[in-house]
Amino acid sequence: MTKEQLKLRLTAAGSHFFDKATMRFFGSRLCEVLPTTPSGHVYFVTSEARPGFNGYAYRSPAGPRLYTVRVWDGESADTETIGEFQQYTNRRAAVNAAKRAAKVP
Fold it and tell me: Taking the model in full, what pTM does it have?
């Protein structure tokens, strides 16, 4: 499945995960989509660099870009985080973790 296909299918299922406003709020990017598993699950990696808020409600500069492993069941509008949100400091580690979770060589 391509990145665009994942975005379209999740949106069609009723998810707001890839809405422009949501992606902007979290500073999110879709980095990698693994092949669909035999059970229909799709594992993917996102990165986030969310700007913080200071005491005066002004946005501060974005923090470091960190990576999160996610899974979608292929049907519902829900995605799950595998491990912790922003658990990985680099893309390679996140993709390797996603492959392990999906049991992809």
Answer: 0.88
Tell me which residue of 21, 30, 36 sits closest to 67, measured CA to CA: 30
The phi-psi region of residue 86 (left if phi > 0; otherwise alpha if psi is between -120 and 50; otherwise beta) is left
Gap between the Cα atoms of 23 and 50, Å rounded: 10
Give the model confidence (pLDDT) of 80-93 as tens digits.
Answer: 999 999 999 999 99
pLDDT tens readout for residues 30-79? 999 999 999 999 999 999 987 665 444 445 566 788 999 999 999 999 99
* Domain residue spans of the chain: 3-102
- Summarize the chain as % helix, strand, coil (round to 5): 30, 30, 45
